[in-house]
Amino acid sequence: xxxxxxxxxxxxxxxxxxxxxxxxxxxxxxxxxxxxxxxxxxxxxxxxxxxxxxxxxxxxxxxxxxxxxxxxxxxxxxxxxxxxxxxxxxxxxxxxxxxxxxxxxxxxxxxxxxxxxxxxxxxxxxxxxxxxxxxxxxxxxxxxxxxxxxxxxxxxxxxxxxxxxxxxxxxxxxxxxxxxxxxxxxxxxxxxxxxxxxxxxxxxxxxxxxxxxxxxxxxxxxxxxxxxxxxxxxxxxxxxxxxxxxxxxxxxxxxxxxxxxxxxxxxxxxxxxxxxxxxxxxxxxxxxxxxxxxxxxxxxxxxxxxxxxxxxxxxxxxxxxxxxxxxxxxxxxxxxxxxxxxxxxxxxxxxxxxxxxxxxxxxxxxxxxxxxxxxxxxxxxxxxxxxxxxxxxxxxxxxxxxxxxxxxxxxxxxxxxxxxxxxxxxxxxxxxxxxxxxxxxxxxxxxxxxxxxxxxxxxxxxxxxxxxxxxxxxxxxxxxxxxxxxxxxxxxxxxxxxxxxxxxxxxxxxxxxxxxxxxxxxxxxxxxxxxxxxxxxxxxxxxxxxxxxxxxxxxxxxxxxxxxxxxxxxxxx
Length: 573
Known about the structure:
This protein is α/β, with parallel strands linked by helices. It has helices at residues 40-68, 71-74, 76-84, 87-98, 103-119, 123-143, 167-172, 191-199, 235-242, 270-278, 302-315, 352-355, 360-376, 394-414, 436-440, 442-445, 456-464, 482-495, 515-521, 533-541, 545-555, 561-571, and strands at residues 4-7, 9-12, 15-23, 158-162, 178-183, 203-205, 219-223, 228-231, 253-254, 260-267, 284-288, 320-324, 383-388, 428-433, 451-454, 501-504, 525-528. The chain contains 22 helices and 17 strands. The protein has an eight-stranded mixed beta sheet with strand order 1-8-7-3-4-5-6-2. The longest helix is centred in the N-terminal third of the chain and has 29 residues, at 40-68. The radius of gyration is 25 Å and the shape is globular.
């Protein structure tokens, strides 16, 4: 039988083979009885009882997830509890039962309205619809007295196939039994994708309806690196999966001709930090501090942030820890900040624009926590670096740097009650290069920053005018587009001969097939999902800088994506 390949979005750069098992958790409702036969009071009380049961379940699952995966991942269940108690949802259900709908149907109809609203948004907000589905299905299951499918007890080497996986579903996955998963829908930033990376599970999402043609008990391979699901793989394909293990190297690595390259990890949670350590990361190249602010009712306190940043620094005693300041807006919405409704939020109030504007107080609190953590971390802890997101102007950079200096000065003069007093040194200061404006301004920016960190996910989106969460234009948003390469090349060339070093923290950095090119360009630091670190370290050691520079010269002449892909394939030895 010929193997079949289905393409989707790889969200964890590892692969595995196993047996397909279809998971269909969505409850089925029968037609409701006539409205005149429904007692509204009884149905309302049934709903209230089911809601309390659901809340208890969510609290239990939160504790289990915090222990198994991490506190930040577990906070999604706090958001689910908020949905349960949302006044608009409660009012919708109450109106429906009063009009003669059974509680199950009232829940289904009310939640459907809100799910449709979220799906009409883009990026991460669209994926919040999965959270609503999760809460809806839980309530309907309880109301209909149905048993929940148990994903924690599937046979060993199972590959879970589903329309989508909700946070509650992924929280059940046992890495000792589940080889990986693939879904019809979903994106790179969904909770399922985040859990997959945290658990180091191979996963491909957004495969499309073709996935529905795969029969249960088929032998399959999930390749999270290529974003491919392979059905009925040949013996050769399966053997390649079985032999792909890459040794973890805890020491820093150099190219074959002796050029040292820092290979760091992108993190957002304590569990991510542990995974980064386990996979041999040299440090943290992108600490997504916004994860501390998501899925909660109010912002984290200075004390909470201080402890988190200090812990991260102490986790990498010989490395560098780069914290990106609060990056919200676009596809990262925080309800308690009352973000504006914008026709195109990716081009609106995002990142440093908010930190120097409506979120200035939050920004100062974050800076204070960061500077205190950098000062108070134990001797031998990692080196703190701070970078700001979505830079478009020189003024944003100078204003942010001035604010850091001011906050540092205040800490120095006032002291801190719960930490020893001492001179507060300002950390390395850098900017994300993720807008065309920042790439064009790179020569001038070198006078104001210590480093650039190229964020290829947003850079590709803005250079190509192709929204990163939109499947219809995902080919345009590929980092192998010539225009994206030239924006990166322009940035690196601007730093040549200056004291500004250049790193990368986008998806491109974690792609081993791009490592030679990036080294040839002149990058000295690459940061990625922790599971990619071993492969990229190996790729670094197999690279010759002189050969890498020759590859760059050839790619500079490329004018199409296919030309770049062809040159990259030719360079693979």
